[in-house]
Amino acid sequence: MVMGKNGINDILIKGNLATPFNDYLSQDPEWAKEIGDEALAANTRDGKVWSISDQKQTVGYFYNKEMFDKAGIKPAQTWDEFMSNNEKLKAAGFVPLALMTGENAWTTNLILASIVGTSGDAGNKFMNTLHPSDFNTPEMIGALNQVKTMLEKYTTKDALGAGYANAANNFCQAKAAIIANGPWMIGDFSDTTKCAAGFDQKVGIAAFPGNGMISSYEVGYMNGGKTQETRDAAEKFIRFKTGLEGQRIALEFGNVVPVSDQVQPSEALKQKYPLLVESIEVGNQSQVHYGSLDSIVYPNVTDAWKLLYPELVFGKSTAEEIAKKLTDIAAKNK
Q: What is the average pLDDT score of the chain?
């Protein structure tokens, strides 16, 4: 059993090291129904279902309600208003954004993806395309320039080169007002080893400007068994992990959004993590959907951000030049 993230799925498929699930799904139509057509289609290539997802990404951003109140702002409806909110937060004495450019630049790229994904039909199409090859678009260049301003003016001093743990800590320790991230982070807000007691009561969730939410399915689990016996055993576990019961366990204990609408939060979970219920509602109300950059670009493009963002911020490369470099990096996969 293999989690197919970060290009591992490509390696297994190209190396003939994975078994597609088509026959197993045909033999168990109830399992296929529990996963759903959209989730299956997300991990299908050339008619073959190579992996099975057990969770859906619905990602907006979390914000510190106390900081927003003191700055006199509400979650922005437009990107111009988002930038204005950053300025007002800064004027009120707060660092607006918990960004990072190390690792996969996760929290920064969620914002970059959302600027592109909500910019109109062309940008939304780009952010819904698997393995885009051309980053030389007005939408991407404009978004890179906006993120450049955010990195220059509205984030923490450690953002350049920081990893996810740094960005998460900056938000949880009230050193920044906003972090883009998914509902799996909600449990951290009431964990006193990560956040101050009562911090969970200060956190709100919002869709990105333009009523946009990152909405995609995890790559999920692949079957790498070498013999029929091990393939069948792997499939049996993956079927449990991704079926309704497995999705329910992941929701209750991992705060992840299930792929099936049949799985709903228990009353106990609603009481413990009301923000999770709110995040699901915000996701359902959002109207513009697109993938994360991690989910659509080639792995070597994901690896490049940690080098390209410092170039952009320090003026060694313009947004246009960064877009060309991304295009050149993507072309190496052909």
A: 95
Q: For 208-231, how does the pLDDT look when each residue is reduced to its tens digit (9 = 90+)? A: 999 999 998 888 999 999 999 999
Q: Are 55 and 106 in contact (CB under 8 A)?
A: no
Q: Are the C-beta atoms of 279 and 205 separated by less than 8 Å?
A: yes
**Beta-strand relationship, 212-217 and 288-290:** parallel
Helix (H) or strand (E) holding 217: strand 212-217
Q: Do the bridges between strand 178-181 and strand 44-45 make them parallel or antiparallel, or are there none, so unpaired?
A: unpaired
Residue span of the structural domain in which 137 resides: 57-215+291-331
Both structure tokens of 86:
């950053």
Interval 142-186: pLDDT, tens: 999 999 999 999 999 999 999 999 999 999 999 999 999 999 999
Residues 6+ apart with CB under 8 A from 20: 48, 49, 50
Please give the Cα distance from 112 to 59 (Å, whole number): 13
Q: pTM for this structure?
A: 0.87
Residue among 198, 181, 196, 177 at smallest CA distance from 93: 177
**CATH number of the domain bearing residue 34:** 3.40.190.10
pLDDT in tens, 37-91: 999 998 998 899 999 998 888 899 999 999 999 999 999 999 999 999 999 999 9
> Rounded CA gap, 98 and 170, in Å?
6
Average pLDDT over residues 313-334: 96
* 130-133 contacts, C-beta under 8 A, 24 or more apart: 130/296, 131/296, 131/297, 131/298, 131/330, 131/333, 132/296, 132/297, 132/330, 133/327, 133/330, 133/331, 133/334
Mark whether 297 and 313 lie in a shared domain.
Answer: yes
pLDDT value for 291: 92
> 51 with 126, same domain?
no
212-217/48-49 β-pairing: unpaired
pLDDT at 6: 67
Burial of 4 (0-12, 13-18, 19+ CB in 10 A): buried
